[in-house]
Amino acid sequence: MEPSPFSLLRLFLEQRSELRRRLKYRLGSDDLVNDALQETYLRIERMGDSRSALSNPIGYLFRMALNVAADQRQVDARYLTGSEVEELLNVGAETLDPARIVHAQFEVHALEKALRELSSRQREILTAARLDDVPLSELALRFGISVRMVGKELRKALFHCGQRLDRKITQRFGPGAGKES
Fold first, then answer.
1. Residue range 55-81, pLDDT digits in tens
2. Do 35 and 136 meet the contact criterion of CB atoms below 8 Å apart?
3. How far is CA 101 from CA 87, 93, 97, 107, 113, in A?
4. Are the CB atoms for 148 and 72 separated by under 8 Å?
């Protein structure tokens, strides 16, 4: 059986509810399932007219969606945990000495400079995702790009800012956790 991308797309649309059910069972999160299905659809559309022999096209679509979800989890793993945010918010004024204040001011200026060096899209994605907590799916719609591309732009922006602040960027969760990026 040699389905064309069109037939894969048709199969995807016909089997969308079954794929959703299977993904929901594996992933647990409706948001992650929706993002994975949307990005899978876009990937199938981008495949063009090339043909490939698939013995199990439904399995292929399911694995594609799982890979998309894994990519999305890697992006999401870069967010601070609730306890990390809490710790940052509870830093008392008594722990700040003049040297720390000067160092913090230096880092703020370095971050501002790093943000100015980003493309406008990367800067907007970074600030919206990290400061305004805008979901990546909403940013994808806002910029007319895929969720995966939003994740890539966010990773590039974080890596750039990390380099400018001389910080190692380490993935905290998911596959590859603990590795520098």
1. 788 888 888 888 888 877 777 666 666
2. yes
3. 18, 10, 6, 10, 18
4. yes
Q: What pLDDT is recorded for position 21? A: 92
77 Cβ partners below 8 Å, 6+ apart? 171, 172, 173, 174, 177
Residues in contact with 33: Cβ distance below 8 Å, sequence separation at least 6, in sequence order:
20, 23, 24, 27, 69
pLDDT band at 139 (very low <50, low <70, confident <90, very high): very high
How far is it, in rounded angstroms, from Cα 95 to Cα 101? 10
Q: What is the pLDDT of residues 113-134, one digit of tens each?
A: 999 999 999 999 999 988 888 8
What sign results for the dihedral spanned by CA atoms 67, 70, 76, 77?
Answer: negative
List the one residue out of 78, 83, 81 whose CA is nearest residue 171: 78
Q: How far apart are CA 114 and CA 166, in angstroms?
A: 11
Residue 11: the pLDDT is 87
Burial (CB count <10 Å: 0-12, 13-18, 19+), residue 134: middle
Residue 142: Cβ within 10 Å count: 13
Token pair 């590859």 is found at: 176
Please name every residue paired with 180 in a beta bridge, in sequence order, or none if there are none.
170
Q: Rounded to whole angstroms, how far apart are CA atoms 32 and 28?
A: 8
Give pLDDT tens digits for 30-56.
888 888 899 888 888 887 655 556 778
